[in-house]
Write a structure and sequence with these properties.
heterotrimer, A alpha/beta, B alpha/beta, C alpha+beta, A: alpha/beta, five-stranded mixed β-sheet, 5 helices, 32% strand, extended, B: two-stranded antiparallel ribbon, 6 helices, 5 strands, globular, binds iron/sulfur cluster
Chain lengths: 213, 205, 391
């Protein structure tokens, strides 16, 4: 397979104005990936599938990743005039980076027997802008996996023929694989509780507490 | 009750006598037909137990019935998820009396390795009464055989009348249990309080 | 089975509803909810089927009855802590699951299993493939109505292999044997001899099975031309494993990726022509012959030496931030793991690419127009294990 930089150049020349960038990967696996913008997702996917050098006919793996909001605190020293005297004041500045949901695709080619080509798409945010183009019309193999990502992460795939929950029941409301999911509270009996489970179990008059106090 | 000496004397003469109770228990304990119903990994060991090497047929229990209407025993073999729990209770309710339950494996007992899962029921005894628990992940087929022998012993000890009579002969005992419903975040209710409450450790001073 | 009238009372919502209307031939359409407790669906799998007489006009699989939150639990535990959970994914093939996970983490952390460990992995993985295929065939024939005998034979052979696993790993099914950068314990004394005895005895069983079943008229009538999966659809729907190869696509990850040391062994990849249930059955039989060939070579060539990468750390294992996708050819298809590390002791994202689930994408396509009895064997021929479908 050609190097990803070259591939990006080719995508940009085929679809002028498209936003595709390289995502580094520090692990020894050196599986670097492409970040494709939402609006280009569908046509870039079709390009991957039909391009004669790539022929990515096999969507192996599709998965969601949750990146919650991050808050970084920075201490910044500023000089300010206080009562006519210049003083150095330390201030903490909070920068809140909004989180997003990400979907990662692993492509292989059965025809040319190469791969993987990894690309990812990101939603706008985690609350209401959770839409991504569905790739089921390109690869049928995405059908159940997109349903799973919808179920567990809440990503809405536009253009999916049958977007229902896959694993949980229909009336279930949460998206349990998100990092901020709060699981139902059934910690009445925890014989070997530790760490967080112990704190949860302590809310009940349960064995765990009985054993430790 | 027939005198034990008389019984022996009669059997020496070729006359076999027994009690109704003995006959009833003998029949029940040697033809426990399980429901053909596997949930997860433990079910494979259950199948292995019914195959030639371990030969569950020795206990008269090799007749796995696909329909709960024909089954006496439910082997809860595997993880009961919250999505599956209503179905398990429903199957139990559909079984005719007398009926028994073996909770096979850590998952059926308490959720086992998957206990911290949001969709895993932490023990089937929250919804239906369990007669025999077998620990293990998965329990070996021998352990399942042991559970069968335990169950047979328990059946054998049951009297037709009096306080130690089996559950299905008591008017007041229910034979069906409420089926939990799917809620927005969890099953409702999360347990049947008439059946299960968290065990307490009582330590003497 | 129940009519749609009874279906309305069911606790769970059906995946779809059809209006009761007269069908073309004057009969009613019938909704049947097969499962989650059904003698033929392997485990707690449910299919909502709409029938016109005996013919299937619509079919929707319903999943999730064994959703055990493997991925969530794994994201909350350490890397090694998830290894025992991988055993319970596809509970027939714990050793190949272990391998796929170990392979991924080795990619993530840059570890390399030593020579002997690679051989042990090949041997155990091929034994796993043998016992998986043998059970699958037993179950498939059971679904076809050959109740008892083939399954008994299959489990007899399986027990011989499980004995090997037990003496090596201490457990029959849940082996939890592989580690990042090697294997947990070395082979016990006499294990290889025992293994080669099992391998030598296996062809006799295969022949016996072939004589008993493969040429059987009923088997042919029930399976040939049933549940055909066209080649293009198979590729497009990401089908992998024996199901894909039965449709004539030459794609075996052991040959493509040459992971581990598979490039050292001479073996062939059986391919089907028609993509029907019979082809899928025969592919498994032929794959068992090839597995035996690999096993013979591996048992002959296995070198002495260490079984763990000296760089590997069991305690305090914290790979650098990054991600890796590793995949192997498990008996069911492409089993992949995708792990994102953020530098902490537990993974940020842990994903299993389940071959059983993705192979079910085409279940409806294969079943349309077939009879309801055929849907059972079509499902059986895909070879699913619910622990992996729902995870
Ligand atoms: S107890 Fe262990 S073997 Fe049994 S179902 Fe649970 S995880 Fe599987």
């Amino acid at each position: 397979m050609e190097p990803l930089e070259q591939l990006i150049a080719r995508i940009n020349s085929t679809f002028p104005g498209s936003e595709v960038s390289l995502m580094p990967n520090d692990a020894p696996s050196s599986q670097t990936s492409l970040l494709v913008s939402r609006k280009d997702g569908r046509r870039v996917a079709e390009f991957f599938k039909s391009d004669s050098l790539l022929r990515m006919d096999f969507l192996s793996n599709l998965t969601g990743v949750d990146w919650p909001d991050t808050v970084t605190k920075q201490k910044i020293k500023t000089k300010r005039n206080v009562d006519g005297v210049e003083k150095e004041i330390e201030e903490t500045v909070e920068t809140r980076k909004p989180g997003f949901l990400e979907v990662v695709y692993h492509l292989y080619s059965m025809e040319l027997q190469h791969g993987p080509l990894i690309f990812r798409m990101r939603t706008e945010n985690r609350v209401d802008g959770v839409h991504l183009p569905s790739l089921t019309p390109v690869w049928r193999g995405a059908e159940l996996q997109e349903r799973e990502v919808f179920d567990l992460y809440g990503v809405r795939f536009e253009g999916h023929p049958d977007l229902r929950r896959l694993l949980m029941w229909e009336t279930f409301e949460d998206h349990p694989m998100r990092k901020d999911y709060v699981e139902p509270d059934d910690y009445e009996f925890e014989p070997t509780a530790h760490d967080e489970v112990l704190t949860k179990a302590k809310a009940y008059d349960s064995c765990a507490v009985a054993l430790r106090t | 009750m027939m005198d034990e000496g008389l019984r022996r004397e009669l059997s020496r003469q070729g006359i076999f006598t027994t009690t109704l109770e003995g006959l009833y228990n003998w029949g029940r304990k040697n033809s426990i037909w399980p429901l053909q119903f596997g949930l997860a990994c433990c079910a494979i060991e259950m199948i292995a137990a019914s195959m030639a090497r371990f030969d569950l047929a020795r206990f008269g229990a090799e007749v796995f019935r696909p329909s709960p209407r024909q089954a006496d025993l439910m082997i809860v073999a595997g993880t009961v998820t919250k999505k599956m729990a209503p179905q398990v209770v429903r199957l139990y309710n559909q079984m005719p009396e007398p009926k028994y339950v073996i909770a096979m494996g850590a998952c059926a007992i308490s959720g086992g390795p998957f206990k911290q899962g949001y969709n895993v029921l932490k023990g089937i005894d929250r919804y239906i009464p369990v007669d025999v628990h077998i620990p293990g992940c998965p329990p070996r087929p021998e352990a399942l055989l042991h559970a069968f022998m335990t169950l047979q012993k328990r059946i054998d000890q049951q009297r037709l009348t009096g306080p130690s009579s089996p559950r299905h002969l008591k008017e007041s005992e229910p034979s069906e249990f409420p089926i939990p419903a799917f809620g927005a975040h969890d099953l409702t209710p999360g347990k049947n309080p008439a059946l299960w409450s968290p065990p307490k450790i009582i330590r003497g001073s | 089975m129940s009519t749609s009238h009874l279906q309305l009372e069911a606790q769970t919502e059906p995946a779809f509803r059809v209006e009761r209307r007269p069908a073309v031939e004057g009969g009613d359409l019938l909704e049947v909810s097969m499962g989650p407790q059904h003698p033929s669906t392997h485990g707690v799998f449910r299919m909502d089927v709409v029938l016109d007489g005996e013919r299937i006009v619509k079919l929707k699989p319903v999943f999730g009855y064994l959703h055990r939150n493997h991925e969530k639990i794994a994201e909350n535990s350490t890397y090694l802590g998830s290894m025992p959970y991988t055993d319970r994914l596809d509970y027939f093939c714990s050793l190949t699951n272990n391998w796929a996970y170990a392979l991924t983490i080795e990619k993530l952390a840059g570890l390399q299993a030593p020579e002997r460990a690679e051989y042990i992995r090949v041997i155990t993985a091929e034994l796993t493939r043998l016992q998986n295929h043998v059970c699958l065939i037993g179950f498939l024939l059971q679904d076809m109505g050959a109740s008892g005998t083939p399954l008994m034979y299959a489990f007899r052979e399986r027990e011989a292999i499980l004995d090997l696993f037990e003496s090596l790993t201490g457990a029959r099914m849940m082996c939890n044997y592989m580690r990042f950068g090697g294997c947990r314990v070395d082979l016990p004394a006499g294990w290889l001899e025992q293994a080669s005895r099992v391998v030598d005895r296996f062809p006799r069983f295969l022949e016996e099975f072939d004589r008993l079943i493969s040429g059987n008229e009923i088997l042919a009538a029930r399976t040939q031309g049933v549940g055909v999966l066209p080649r293009e659809l198979a590729i497009n729907a990401s089908i992998t494993g024996p199901v894909l190869r039965a449709s004539g696509v030459n794609y075996d990850i052991r040959k493509v990726d040459k992971y581990g040391i598979y490039d050292r062994f001479a073996f062939r990849v059986p391919l089907g022509d028609h993509g029907d249930v019979y082809d899928r059955y025969m592919i498994r039989v032929l794959e068992m012959h090839e597995s035996l060939a690999i096993l013979r070579q591996a048992i002959r060539d296995i070198p002495p030496g260490p079984i763990m990468d000296p760089k590997a750390k069991i305690r305090g294992f914290k790979p650098k931030a990054g991600e890796a996708y590793g995949r192997i050819e498990s008996p069911k298809g492409e089993l992949g793991f995708y792990v994102i590390s953020d530098g902490s002791p537990n993974p940020h994202r842990y994903r299993v690419r389940p071959p059983s689930l993705i192979n079910l994408t085409v279940l409806e396509d294969m079943c349309l127009g077939q009879t309801v009895a055929d849907s059972v064997i079509i499902l059986g021929s895909i070879d699913i294990v619910l622990g992996e479908v729902d995870r």
